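Form 7-S
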Amino acid sequence: MHFSDAEFEQLRKEIEKAKSYSDLLGKDGPIKKLIKNSLEQVLEAEMKEHLGYDKNSPAGNNSGNSRNGKSSKTLKTDEGEITIDIPRDRNGEYEPIIVPKHQRLIGDLENKVISMYAKGMSTRDIQMHIEDIYGLKLSAASVSNITDTIISMVKEWQARPLEEVYPIVFLDAIHYKVKEDGNVATKAAYTCLGIDLQGHKDLLGIWIGEAESAKFWLNILNELRNRGVKDILITCVDGLKGFVEAIGAVFPETIVQKCIIHQIRYSLNYIASKNQKEFMCDLKKVYKAPTKDDAFFELTKLDEKWGKKYPLPIKSWKSNWENLSAYFQFPQEIRTMIYTTNAVEALHRQFRKVTKAKTIFPNDEALTKMLFLAFRDVSRKWTSAINNWPFIISQLSIIFENRIIDFL
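Output:
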């Protein structure tokens, strides 16, 4: 329904008399009346389009469908509640577009709820915040329904095509407690953080599975391949058993660099505290060596000095040497990037900030929603290429010429 001249004049007077924000947007404030009127005009236009003729037009006679009164609906908006009249058709075929059926929220309120959820706020906290700030009472079911829309976003994002070549991909998992079949289980959130040919970070996916295993990683790697990834030049991983073999089964030419920091932590578990400082001084000569040959020479000296007293860590370094020492073939700028999984662990730290209030997640979907939203917030800062990328990609284009040159 359109405002008459008299109604518009009344609105103008109300706006002039307003002394505060609440005068404009209170229960019967002029701004709310304008919003109500605008929505109802759009709904009338939709009904006209649906039926094919104007209201009261003789063209509707014997058309097979006609207007059938109106129904009222109360909407929750950033400015409070607004009750509007929605036209109906006799056949019940009209589906409002501007205010879809079952939708009770309009404006930016839905995005605000999702943003609060992304920051780790609980459903109860979101309810209280919305009521305190906007004076609206949202049920727990309403909040849940809003955040459930994220799942379709996740599925679309997780199925998107990927680049054909990634110079570097970091693979790691972060663990959470999740309810499953009435019990609480420890689940792994598997993450693949890629660096594309332009030097930008790109999270390739998030997968929720049982405790971290090479078999699950194999499924993920196959999925990456099915989504278009033909080659990965370098992967950076932790010391999970079978990880190297899983990568090789899908991307046989990929260089696998095991995380030096993980290896150091593992080693120190077997070194007495009184010897740790001296041991680390000797070990540093290994992983800080200028060349692979120098590093192996220092590893041999480490074995001679500590091997009999602490055989387990030395054995681990020697048996994993091929993948622990892969970074020595690259210049320092690339070594610094790949000799640890710090890049993906930095992302995991951001995840922890958001999820710290959640000791247990009710299900896998709830965990997926929160991690996806946390990633979405973090990735807004990923606007520029990583440091020294022109130099790094130039080096990689020479080292991996036949595998990368056609994609640059």
